[in-house]
Amino acid sequence: MDFITSENILLIGSTLLIAGVLIGKSSYRIGLPLLLIFLLVGMGFGIDGLGIRFSDMHTAQFIGMIALCIILFSGGMGTKLKAIRPVIVPGLVLSTAGVLLTALITGVFIFWLSGMSWTNIHFALLPSLLLASTMSSTDSASVFGILGSQKVGLRHHLRPMLELESGSNDPMAYMLTIILIDAITLDGQLSAGTLLLQLALQFGVGALAGYLLGKATGWLIEAYRRMGSKGNRSEDSGQTASMVSILMLGSVFFTFAVTTAFGGNGYLAVYITGIVLGNSSLPNRGGISRFMDGMTWLAQIVVFLMLGLLVNPHEMLDVAAVSLIIGAFMILVGRPLSVLISLAPLRHITLRSKIFISWVGLRGAVPIIFATYPVVAEVDGARQIFNIVFFVTLLSLLIQGTTVIASARRLRLTQPHTHEPEDFGVELSDDLPTTLHTVTVSRSILEGGNTLRDIKLPDGSLVMMIKRGDRYIVPNGSRRLLLGDTLLIIKEDNNLSE
Known about the structure:
Distance between the termini: 70 Å
Helix content: 55-70%
Number of helices: 20
Shape: globular
Order of helices and strands: HHHHHHHHEHHHHHHHHHHHHEEEEE
Strand content: 5-15%
Number of strands: 6
Largest sheet: 4 strands, antiparallel
């Protein structure tokens, strides 16, 4: 009887998803990053746990590629140009020079460590640099997930800087990984000129393709909207959001494939495409954002569960000691040195900020995905590389992931969190010259009276709805207001005042 059937695959996959979500709920109580929980669940169901055997690196690499495209695109969509403009220089420096320095510093250390007689790894210089390169970027899924779940503000624009770095540094690590694999398989034939040419091609084609295809996708969305408006019946807004979301998802994979075919970096391209679309006019933006958030979480969960299944924990025990040393070096020396050196010319960034940036060098799914490339390419010692990367990732998530906000508080970099507005379930088209705002009724608002007609609102403003506890109230001029009520206000943009 064949155990591998469609029904059994669906049964195992659905069980993993359900178990991961339910167990992941406990992460808020025990303080572990949610994505680490999914990784541990995958390991628990794997060969050394409940016995599910999954060892197909090619399939893992393909699934990881799809997931990473979705994660980077969604991260790009959430990157607002207004927010990153003050930090675009340090963010890009960290995502390029910072990654390169991390790979070099850590690679040289691994090469030195390999020469010690008491270690059980014996890598030459290029494999040492390859191992370091797979781990050289911070993981966007981990950084977005941890910073997004914490209701704490960060000073000095640190949050957008860290999100920009984590969203844009994967392409650099990917390029270093691929170039070093090529060099090893070509018996070390790698010149500085070839390296610079490949980096320029990957970055140049990737950035250009991402921008152009982002603009082309925006044009397609607008064309789709015009097609719908010409019919006798207008399309349902929910259907529009769904269809546009699917169109954007298709654009993500098209962008990656076309960019890669032309020698550019597909991951950089999809991230830039996300930025272009996220800062353009979109119909039913709220519905599209919810769709992409769901797809991103699904991609993250699937890839972490899969990677947990892929590893054999008993194999990691063989490299546990050396992995612990490498991980500690990256956390305490490699990452801090790369941050301090790359940001040294930017004197406006304080030392405390640089220390915090160093600590948020989270590893996650991306390094493990990149570690499958040497295995697929059949590089000598590739399985050791994979196990070391997996161990270091666990160490990073366990130590750094659980102390991000604590370290920010200790460095006095936190500030009062700007509360998100109450969700009234009301959305406006981006085409309308109006915006929605929420205001909580305070004593100062009620000084002139306690009814709607008594309070003063800016010209061009109108109270649309009142939220009182769990109740939603349609307002009129005589409606009495209470302390703590939340008002949903619509404003004309040309009358907005800060």
